[in-house]
Amino acid sequence: MMTARVTAKMTARRMAKALGACAAAAVLALAAPGSAQAAQGVLVIDGAAHEDPSGCYPLGDFAPSEVANLTDEVAWAWSGPSCDGRVTEPVFPGHISVPQGRSIFIS
After folding, report:
1. CA distances from 95 to 43, 55, 88 (A)
2. Cα separation of 77 and 6, whole Å?
3. Are the C-beta atoms of residues 78 and 102 closer than 8 Å to each other?
């Protein structure tokens, strides 16, 4: 028979896993490509300006890329070369960053 203490620990673990899964789903839902409207402003990747950007852009293969997000949307760095894999980090509007990833998506 399980004691109340063991049952409480098991319940806490299940709740933590469920909350972790919900948090991960929320991050992916916010980061998933799919918006039809372009961001307003300029996304600068290694000095190349993309006016009113929308979609997936490659980052440097051999050296980290500098990204200046001068738009009104968050840009999301992805681990894969075609905005696939996993989201590695956001680049917020008005920020300059050297994100870890191989591509960047902005809606």
Report:
1. 10, 19, 16
2. 41
3. yes
